[in-house]
Prior knowledge:
The structure holds 2 protein chains of 2 kinds. By secondary structure, chain A is an alpha/beta fold. Chain A contains 16 helices and 14 strands. The N and C termini of chain A lie far apart (50 Å). Classes of the chains: A alpha/beta, B alpha/beta. At the A-B interface, strand 2, helix 1, helix 8, strand 11 and strand 12 of A face helix 3 and helix 5 of B.
Amino acid sequence: MSKGKFGIHGGQFVPETLMNAVNELEEAYNKYKNDPEFVAELDKLMREYAGRPSLLYYAEKMTNDLGGAKIYLKREDLNHTGAHKINNCLGQCLLAKKMGKKRVIAETGAGQHGVATATVAALLGLECEIFMGKEDTIRQALNVYRMKLLGAKVHAVETGTMTLKDAVNECMREWTNRVEDTLYVLGSVMGPHPFPTIVRDFQSVIGKEIRQQLMEKEGRLPDTVIACVGGGSNAMGAFYDFINDESVELIGCEAAGLGVDNPKNAATIANGTLGIFHGMKSYFCQNEYGQIAPVYSISAGLDYPGIGPEHANLSDTGRAKYVPVTDEEAVQAFEYLSRTEGVIPAIESSHALAHCMKIAPQMSKDKIIVVNLSGRGDKDVAAIARYRGEDIYE
Amino acid sequence: MNDIKKAFENGKAFIPFVTAGDPDLETTEKLLIAMSENGADIIEIGIPFSDPVAEGVVIQEADLRALASGTTTDKIFDMVKRIRPQVKCALAVMTYMNPIFVYGTDKFMAKCKECGISAVIVPDTPFEEKAELAPDCDENGIELISLIAPTSHDRIKTIAKEAQGFVYCVSSLGVTGVRSEITTDIKEMISLVKSVNDIPCAVGFGISTPEQAKKMSESADGVIVGSAIVKLVAEYGRDSVEPVCEYVKSMKDAIR
Lengths: 394, 256
């Protein structure tokens, strides 16, 4: 029987060599997720190491400038390592430790998940190897050095398009090669069951905190929650707690690169079709023969040809909607938030900000938007400078 | 008797793999005919995929060369259908779930039947997900080959009970590719299969030399070789028919 379904999406499409490994992970997760000791340990790490809860910040200048809905930013950029990725890494690495694994491997796009995995591996005393597309090691050279500083071995993946999807391919291959003592710490709500569920659960702290913090500040739920979507972990984390609150509109922002009509984009819901790849049934950018398309975005973290199966289902049911945002719109939002609020957002998160900037002025002043600011933008400064024609060194 | 069953009646079966369209379909066409005349009992035709996660670098590169030369699933089916009468052995298709699913699983299996292909091997579709393929395979009389791996342990019997055609025993951890040594207890894996189902077992992953093939065939009913052949195709390109045939012959002779 197929497991881990979200509507028609999900499943476990992996080589037989990995089946016992994913089953073992599922068993361990079910055992520990409600284990008081595990929960307490994770909670302590979240508070005292990652710095949770992250702030829910009222962006007053931005709100006034745009002249519409009240805008709050969920400051995942203030977590240790500068992004939401640490939430999942703490959970999965602690799980790896409980399972008696000695080694973790992970893929990374922008480098944020790689840095977070290397960080937690250092803390918990696990060996760590990171797979990163060669193209991305160039775009995000600082993060490569960070991972090395943290004691991880970084492999530059030179197959295929040399980006995130190829890093995932290589991680799967490495896992089949050494499965006994190794856990694959998948960075997004994608891949074979149980990963989409595990990653969503560890990230769902974001939405839970938004609810609680907004209740304290405004005494009510938000009208709209906006997050960027590559594989979709920060968005799933922000959305999950609100899925049953029908009044809360959920919007995922996909990377449209040079535009949805230009082949250089990564907008999976806008342009993708149903397929089965990377362990899951979901939507993928691909051709009529099921060959996966070489996608593009200025953001290495959103440069992925698929989307997590739970998002695919939220799109099917209409519970969440997904909108494309171009490179240019994201860069403008990146610059806007830096200037307006003194906060430099990750280029990934800037896709969500860009959509907020489009819709906030059309909404009345008594409406509330929460944008999940999934990461900080320091890593992107050099790339944005180059985009604007200034050739600076990192 | 069906083609797959017949393939195991000629001593131990030799099962070569070739990536269709590498370096072009004209070469693949010649290879299929020539391999069937030089000792192949079943030929695995690889339909190239952009992201073959179970393959080592040799077959990954072959897939990319094949796609770059304009190979598509339809062109492969057209070629196989045209030359099928000249190919003297059974044929199986090896590809990933996505190229089948996006083509339309029902349409894909009907095409296999039309082209005289007897079986499909889909390495990223394990036992739990076989419902995605099995109904359309059954409908068209295509055998869905089950894989077992060194990590399968207590899954082996469950998988073997429902297996069709032959069981593909993955010899080693990791992806496809030439290995100097195979340490897995293949004999044990095979005896678990045979304890619940009287079905041929063929071993693949990592086998390249006649010595290895001979050793494997002591416990297995057949030997599958992919990367070693694809390497020859990579080296000799359009002139690979002769070296590949010599190789196929030497392997079949070693296990006969």
